[in-house]
Specification:
6 strands; Uracil-DNA Glycosylase, subunit E; 12% strand; alpha/beta; six-stranded mixed beta sheet
């Protein structure tokens, strides 16, 4: 009997039912059951987040983790918060998304050539997963990249995502550069068949202070698109 090959749908269903990290389970469910006043009455997803996007993606965007009142509420990566506003607007300008906004999982957003994921799949307290929680989740990203067979470029949103992507590729059996490539906005590294591109995370802390501007984020996606085309 031939074994059934795993699909993205299989993986996403497994991710959404994960209960591996008690602290994260407790936090995501507590936020969902007692949200801030502006979201009172909203139906929260309150579970781990699968990836989202084009199964034939050449570019994979990796973030830290879902936001407690963003993706943990909407059920879609980088949807329903200011970080997502910046990310999807930039992806739209780069021709990777059909619209510049992402409000909820039913708003019609489609990605073309791109897939959005994260190192950690549950909203963590203070946006700070523990090393054990990170390592518990990394196998999901390993399997996701294996299923995204056309992926060539990984855009890492922030230091945590950069480090997580390198750990993921090492766990996939690829040799990572030594010394470890340093993170920075616009930093690049080559690992096996992948090109990594670093970007400051589009958090309010970075966008409100001007540490990350639209021009800077656009440059990262322009570079990602160029790299994806050059690796055909």
């Amino acid at each position: 009997m031939v074994e059934k090959r795993e699909t993205l749908e299989d993986l996403n269903a497994e991710v959404a039912s994960c209960m591996a990290c008690p602290r994260l389970v407790a936090w995501r469910e507590a936020v969902a059951s007692d949200p801030p006043r502006r979201y009172r009455g909203a139906e929260y997803w309150g579970r781990p987040l699968p990836g989202f996007g084009d199964p034939a993606a050449q570019i994979v965007i990796v973030g830290l983790a879902p936001a407690a009142n963003g993706a943990n509420r909407t059920g879609r990566m980088f949807t329903g918060d200011r970080s997502g506003d910046w990310l999807y607007a930039a992806m739209h300008r780069a021709g990777l998304a059909n619209q510049p906004t992402s409000v909820d999982a039913g708003d019609g957003l489609r990605l073309d050539g791109a897939y959005v994921s994260a190192v950690v799949r549950c909203a963590p307290p203070d946006n700070k997963p523990t090393p054990r929680e990170r390592d518990e989740c990394i196998p999901y990203l390993v399997r996701e990249l294996e299923l995204l067979e056309r992926a060539k470029v990984i855009v890492c949103l922030g230091l945590f995502a950069w480090d997580g992507a390198l750990r993921t590729l090492r766990a996939s059996g690829l040799e990572t550069p030594r010394p470890k490539p340093r993170f920075g906005h616009g930093a690049e590294a080559k690992v096996g068949p992948y090109a990594l591109v670093g970007s400051y995370h589009p958090s309010q802390q970075n966008t409100f202070t001007g540490r990350l501007t639209e021009v800077m984020l656009d440059a990262v996606f322009e570079r990602a698109v160029t790299l994806a085309a050059s690796r055909d």
